[in-house]
């Protein structure tokens, strides 16, 4: 990047800064899912190989490889979430500087929950849909669920390695 005047932060408008932060945050979310999908597919393929090779000498190396992949997956998820959080914070700051009344990323939890509650309230759902609406209001984090899935694979692989080692005795 050169030091030309058009590349200096002071030459960018607040709107341009906000757009850059929004685009970067959205890119980080997209990359998070692409990486997670890659690791999920890779873990699933290694698991298929592990179970297809039952009783074979390749099970332990496959288990260790699977465990390594799952640990890397968790670390990549944490790194991706770090950058997503960083850009969401930048959006919050840029938004308040641009127009404090916008309140998209700078809303507090009370306001966010009220918005979602009011949105769901107008849907008039019944039965299972109403139960799902209540789950929505608990705000489960999709990135956290993916982190939990990577932890589940770590536990699975560690358990399979231990079982494999115990069966070799």
Automatic annotation (TrEMBL):
Superkingdom to which the source organism belongs: Bacteria
InterPro entries: 8xMP
Keywords, ordered alphabetically: Membrane, Transmembrane, Transmembrane helix
Positions of transmembrane segments: 60-80, 144-166
Alphabetical list of Pfam families matching this protein: 8xMP (PF24838)
Record's protein name: SMODS and SLOG-associating 2TM effector domain-containing protein
Biological source species: Saccharophagus degradans
